[in-house]
Amino acid sequence: MKRVAIEERAHWRAHAEEVGFLFHTFDGEPYWDETAYYQFSLRQVEEDLETPTEALHQMVMDMVGDITRSEEMLTLLDIPRDFWSYIWNSWNRGEPHLYGRMDFVYDGNGPAKLLELNYDTPTSLFETGFFQWVWLEEQIGSGKLPAQADQFNSLQDKLEQAFAELALPQPFYFASVRDSVEDKGTVAYLMDLATQVGMENRYIALEDIGELNGQLVDEQGTAMAGLFKLYPWEFMVREDFASVIQSSQTQFIEPAWKMLLSNKGILPLLWQRYPNHPNLLPAFFETPRSEPMGPGWVRKPLFSREGANVEMITAAGDRVTAQGPYSDGRYIRQALQPLPKFCDHQRGQDTYTMLGSWVVGDSAAGICIREDATLITKDSSRFIPHIILG
Questions:
Q1: Which residues have a Cβ under 8 Å from the Cβ of 135 and sit 6 or more positions away?
Q2: Res 38 pLDDT > 90
Q3: How many helices (H) and strands (E) does the chain have?
Q4: Bridge partners of 272?
Q5: Alpha-carbon span 243 to 45, nearest angstrom
Q6: pLDDT single digits (tens) 146-197
Q7: Mean pLDDT for the chain?
Q8: For the chain, which residues make up each domain, given as ranges?
Q9: How many other CB atoms sit within 10 Å of the CB of residue 328?
Q10: Looking at residue 323, what is its pLDDT?
């Protein structure tokens, strides 16, 4: 695994906006960054990333049924009691799931270590499945990358296949927060993939979803039989409309049981069941009696996204924090495995690299890479493409 500088494509910004990638830049800073790429060997991808991803996925899937039957574990995950039966039914009815992403710390040597599961509302989807693949093809075409360069990226193909096989009710609705450009772009990408396999789809802003006679309805009062919602389950079950979710006949993607796996509490539960697994880091639920872990540990809210409210104590005792809105809930503690540091020659600074590994259905489907100037990866962290060579 190495970081390699490369010349940008002259037209990429215009192309990004042409295909709807409107969040390629945040506040004047690049989110999509193709001034460099990461290079992996095929062995690194197959043995260190693809195989562990599918093994860890199977491990957490094997735990879902047990969690739904355990008051102790549901309590530890801070799942509202009113939703325990709803989740149990969701799992036991076999409600299908679509996709998720695991975040790893990996430096090219030794086992990748799982940092967290993003199994409910992961983004970075369009830029992984489509835009970095186009980057690869065009850089090969221009001669800046060798013809035999490849990419671990079957994300788009597997999402299309999943939509073709899931037999979802139609019209199928896709929803996101109205004013989030990134979320709307992610939902538009998924809608396009679903349309390509013949599904009838409709977009609705989350703010426009209503309630009628115990059903979730669209702007015309039509009950929604199927809904992809880019909105976290942990928020939904605490909203004023939570009771309508339980009375409605809506089939959700992701299903309710996914809220068990997108919870940071799955990390200590995994560690309890698989202690010393090579791809796991020691993790524990925080209690009033918790002692500092050492040397180096991380404090994470059960419900947190994009690094928000993460607190890190490095092995040297330095404290690194990220601000956010998730400070009023419960926390876990996880041993610190620092992200690998690379040199960003263009900016003349060090950069820390996190690797995301996608799962569609039950199969590994590709990777994405994010960079940040700090040890905590945030929503503003840059997206860097990758290749496989050798």
A1: 9, 12, 34, 385
A2: yes
A3: 12, 22
A4: none
A5: 44
A6: 999 999 999 999 999 999 999 999 999 999 999 999 999 999 999 999 999 9
A7: 95
A8: 2-263+341-388
A9: 8
A10: 82
Contact call for residues 11 and 319 (beta carbons, < 8 A): no
3-state secondary structure 168-193: CCCCEEEEECCCCHHHHHHHHHHHHH
Tell me phi and psi for residue 134, to 5 degrees.
-60, -40
**Does the reported pTM lie above 0.90?**
yes
Tokens representing residue 63 in the block:
């735990």
CB atoms within 10 A of CB 92: 12
CA atoms of 118 and 261, how far apart (whole Å)? 8
Residue 13 belongs to what H/E stretch? helix 12-18
> How are beta strands 226-229 and 251-253 bridged, if at all?
parallel
Question: Which DSSP string do the residues of 293-341 spell out, in sequence order?
Answer: PSSSEEEEESS--TTTT-EEE-TTS-EEE---S-TTS-EEEEE--PPPE
The residue behind tokens 């700090």 is 374
β-bridge mates for residue 320, sequence order: 312
What are the structure tokens assigned to 324, written together? Answer: 């956010």
CA distance 313 to 334: 11
Residue pair 351/344 in contact by the 8 Å Cβ criterion: yes
Check if the beta carbon of residue 369 is closer than 8 Å to that of residue 38. yes
* pLDDT digit string, tens, across residues 45-66: 999 999 999 999 999 999 999 9
Q: How many CB atoms lie within 10 A of CB 86?
A: 16
Residues 49 and 38 sit within 8 Å (Cβ to Cβ): no
* 268 membership: H or E segment, kind and range: helix 266-273
User: In whole angstroms, what is the distance from residue 108 CA to residue 206 CA?
Assistant: 41
Distance of alpha carbon 390 from alpha carbon 387, whole angstroms: 10
259: pLDDT strictly greater than 90:
yes
Question: Shortest CA distance to 295 belongs to which of 316, 274, 310, 278?
Answer: 316
Contacts of 1 (CB under 8 A, 6+ apart): 38, 39, 40, 44, 106, 107, 108, 340
Enumerate the β-bridge partners of residue 26.
Answer: 29
